From TrEMBL, chain A:
Its main location: membrane. Belongs to the ATPase C chain family. The keyword Aminoacyl-tRNA synthetase does not apply. The lineage of its organism: Bacteria, Pseudomonadati, Thermodesulfobacteriota, Desulfobacteria, Desulfobacterales. Keywords: ATP synthesis, Cell membrane, CF(0), Hydrogen ion transport, Ion transport, Lipid-binding, Membrane, Transmembrane, Transmembrane helix, Transport. SUPFAM superfamilies: F1F0 ATP synthase subunit C. Residues 15-78, 95-158, 176-239 form the V-ATPase proteolipid subunit C-like domain. The chain crosses the membrane at residues 12-37, 58-83, 89-114, 135-160, 172-196, 217-242. This is ATP synthase subunit c.
From TrEMBL, chain B:
The lineage of its organism: Bacteria, Pseudomonadati, Thermodesulfobacteriota, Desulfobacteria, Desulfobacterales. NCBIfam families: ATP_synt_6_or_A. Gene3D superfamilies: ATP synthase, F0 complex, subunit A (1.20.120.220). It is found in: Cell membrane; Membrane. The keyword Thylakoid does not apply. Belongs to the ATPase A chain family. Key component of the proton channel; it plays a direct role in the translocation of protons across the membrane. The chain crosses the membrane at residues 25-43, 81-99, 111-130, 168-191, 197-221. This is ATP synthase subunit a. The gene is atpB2.
Length: 243, 224
């Protein structure tokens, strides 16, 4: 079993691709299922709005799927790109890229399911709020995906940055650590932002006169919930560029 | 499958640096701009009380997006930023849809396009914020809740550019990769039209709308 470094680079790329898509598929599926369950439940409450509930459910699920689509992009890039110059750093960077994207897609995927579930319920309760509810749901879900996009950023940096051809184990560990840091750090903020935006959508559906106020408070709350993802981003960037 | 990740580039050395132009993206961006200009010309050429089909479409875009802007900001600002929001949405929508036609690619598939549009929105939002609140009050917001949180607040603001542009890029890129891979696996039988309808029409329209909405929201958060 004597492998040269190039083989190990391919091994790392394939493992990273598998980790990225395998982990990335988890969250979005849970979120989408939650939305679908709520849509089914509220369909009975207001059967006349069935068509609108169905449409809202589909739009919400399509957006919730973004996190998994990011993971797919990273996985396909890792599988089909030929990495020519290989060193120990490349190996750990590719593994780190898969871990970063895979884990960070979990939180945002789960979180994006909450606002669309509340939107379905809100439309069933008060059909005339549909326009405001849909807008707030779209904003909320989009901002909920921020941790996943930060994970995508770190993955792209790890894949496409050219690293010096040293065999320093410490630098390699730093790259792997940056992927883990961003990935794990993005799970909580994703779910938390989803909770914040589901609250926003829920109460816009009850009283749409105050849509602007609720949206602003929701966005500020989400920004604070997101700050822990920002800490992870800072540490991940420090690990890549400084350590 | 060989098309994956292939980019036509024009590299011009200038003052010791290489200037890289992604020719496909520039060409496709100009195609989108040309189609929009032609559409605008014909939509507004014969304006009448009984509108033609193109005028109806144009009025629909303008009135809907103008209302959206007015809901988020006030009337005065909506008059100022409404046209930009409208142009942004129409550009993104056509950019995301153009990949459905053979031999054409989405300009938004390349990170440069979403990133530059995201930076544009960011600069406009902060310009509007400084203009309404004055620089002192604007700068003070970064030092909340305590002074030493400033670097993290700044990074939090910059992360908005990352999130808005990577979201669009990731979705459009992911859609086109899925279409390419599935078409390759199934020898382009049956599946491609449905995939194009979902990832091109549906996801493309939603992501264009989300990008526009977030730009509006970022501006409105800054001016309030």
């Amino acid at each position: 079993m004597d492998f040269d470094i190039q083989t190990w680079v391919s091994v790392a790329a394939f493992m990273g691709g598998g980790l990225s898509m395998g982990l990335g598929a988890m969250g979005a599926a849970i979120g989408e299922g939650y939305t679908a369950a709520k849509a089914n439940a509220v369909m009975l409450r207001n059967p006349e709005m069935g068509g609108d509930i169905f449409k809202t459910m589909l739009v919400g699920q399509a957006i919730a799927e973004s996190a998994s689509i990011f993971a797919l992009v990273v996985a396909i890039i890792l599988l089909f790109t030929h990495f020519e110059s290989g060193s120990l750093l490349t190996i750990s960077a590719l593994l780190g890229a898969g871990l970063s994207m895979g884990f960070s897609a979990i939180g945002s995927g789960v979180g994006s399911g909450f606002p669309s579930a509340e939107a379905c319920e809100g439309i069933a309760r008060q059909p005339e709020t549909i326009r405001n509810v849909t807008n707030v749901m779209l904003i909320g879900q989009a901002v909920t995906q921020t941790p996943a996009t930060l994970g995508l950023l770190i993955s792209c940096i790890l894949i496409f940055k050219e690293f010096p051809a040293t065999d320093s184990v410490v630098s390699a560990a730093a790259l792997l650590g940056s992927g883990l840091c961003m990935g794990l750090g993005a799970i909580g903020p994703g779910i938390g932002e989803g909770l914040a935006s589901s609250g926003g959508v829920k109460w816009v559906a009850r009283n749409q006169t105050y849509t602007a106020n609720i949206t602003r408070l929701m966005l500020i709350g989400m920004a604070v919930a997101e700050s822990t993802a920002i800490y992870s981003l800072v540490v991940a960037l420090l690990l890549i560029f400084v350590v | 499958m060989d098309e994956l990740g292939k980019v036509h580039q024009l590299i011009i050395p200038l003052l010791g640096h290489d200037m890289t132009f992604n020719l496909d993206v520039i060409l496709m961006t100009w195609v989108v701009i040309a189609v929009l200009i032609v559409f605008g010309f014909f939509a507004s050429r014969k304006k009448s009380l009984l509108p033609g089909p193109l005028q109806v479409l144009g009025e629909l875009f303008v009135s809907q997006l103008y209302d959206l802007t007015e809901d988020a900001m006030d009337k005065e600002r909506a008059e100022k930023y409404g046209p930009m929001i409208c142009a942004l949405f129409m550009f993104l929508l056509l950019s995301n849809w153009i990949g459905m036609f053979p031999h054409l690619h989405e300009p938004t598939k390349d990170l440069n396009t979403p990133l530059s549009l995201g930076i544009m929105g960011f600069v406009i939002a902060h310009y509007a914020g400084i203009k309404t609140k004055g620089f002192k009050k604007y700068a003070k917001e970064y030092c909340e809740p305590v002074f030493f949180m400033m670097p993290l607040n700044v990074i939090g603001e910059l992360a908005k550019i990352v999130s808005i542009s990577f979201r669009l890029f990731g979705n459009i890129m992911g859609g086109s990769i899925i279409i390419l891979v599935v078409s390759y696996l199934t020898y382009s039988v049956i599946f491609p039209p449905f995939l194009n309808a979902f990832f091109g029409l549906f996801v493309g329209a939603i992501q264009a709308f989300v990008f526009t909405m977030l730009t509006v929201v970022y501006i409105s958060v800054q001016v309030k």
